[in-house]
Amino acid sequence: MISCRIYTDIHYASTNAKLLLQAKEIGRENFWIAPGSKPCNMVEDYIQQYYKKFFTGPYKGIEYWVYIPPEGNTIDGFHFDKDENDPQLTHPDWITCINLTYDTCATCVSDMEYGDIKPKEVLYTYGDEGKTVIWPGDYAWSDMAGTGEEVRIYLNIWKERRPEGLHRSKVIDWEPIEWNMLKKQTPIEYQGEYFTHTHMCGDTFDTFILREPVNTSAGQSYLVPEAIPSTRS
Predict the structure, then answer these.
(1) To the nearest whole percent, how much of the chain has pLDDT over 70?
(2) Which ranges in the chain belong to alpha helices (H)?
(3) Torsion of CA 170, 63, 206, 88, to 10 degrees
(4) What CATH number did the domain enclosing 111 receive?
(5) How far is residue 71's CA from residue 113's CA, in Å, rounded to a whole number?
(6) Which domain holds residue 212?
(7) Nearest-angstrom CA–CA distance, 33 and 62
(8) Residues 105-117: what's their mean pLDDT?
(9) Is 229 inside any structural domain?
(10) Is the overall model pTM greater than 0.90, yes or no?
(11) Which helix (H) or strand (E) holds 64?
(12) In this structure, is residue 215 part of a structural domain?
């Protein structure tokens, strides 16, 4: 089974609104913040507090970026997060998605690791304000096609290395962050109708067909144990 943790409604609505504005302002670049560094803005302050709430132990730093679909391209295909400058294909220790919008499209996390040609199991997690999902850094994943209105913050947690070429974000004033009590969400093992779509992993160039649930609710998470349609007649 896919290893993941899912929590909902982790921060106040007022915090979400302010975080959403700052996330849009800093843009789509990949940034870096180390433990103990003074935050430049609300997003960085949030990330440092987030680590203390959801992780333990020392870490080298956090690579982060804001996902806002570019106009006309609302899908980010399957890929592996990695240090782009390391020929040894080093993955982050953990990947995190923080949803800032109520979405009818999903982030799709698979159990596919580098060397596999296709996933066996996938998790479709549909966004809601203040929802977060955490999964191992060596899983292939994708942002499914959406409306173009989705805003998410992604984190790569690096315990022992800092990828090259990352820098700090811009300085923006911010107000204190308010957190809610953590509420864990258990994925639903989906039992129903599916539609299918074809994907290619951008790192391995393997092509596969996935099943996605037809009847879903925004904010919910669905586990599909047999991700690939059967070829048996």
Answers:
(1) 96
(2) 13-26, 42-54
(3) 130
(4) 2.60.120
(5) 30
(6) 5-224
(7) 5
(8) 91
(9) no
(10) yes
(11) strand 61-67
(12) yes
Indicate whether 232 belongs to any domain.
no
Compute how many other C-beta atoms are within 10 angstroms of the C-beta atom of residue 210: 23
pLDDT digits (tens, 9 = 90+) for 151-172: 999 999 999 999 989 999 999 9
- Strand partners for 61: 158
Q: How far apart are CA 138 and CA 178, in angstroms?
A: 31
CA 203, CA 62: separation in Å to the nearest integer?
Answer: 22
- In this structure, the number of other CB atoms found within 10 A of the CB of residue 31 comes to 21
Q: Examine residue 230 and state whether it is found in any structural domain, yes or no.
A: no
Distance of CA 53 to the CA centre of its chain: 17
| Count of structural domains, the chain | 1
Measured CA to CA, the distance from residue 3 to residue 62 in angstroms comes to 20
Q: Cα(first)–Cα(last) distance of the chain, in Å?
A: 27
- Which residues, listed in sequence order, are joined to residue 99 by a DSSP beta bridge? 152
Sorted by sequence, the CB contacts under 8 Å of residue 94 that are 6+ apart come out as 55, 134, 135, 136, 137, 155, 156, 157
Residue type at position 171: V
Q: Does the CA dihedral 132-133-137-141 come out positive or negative?
A: negative
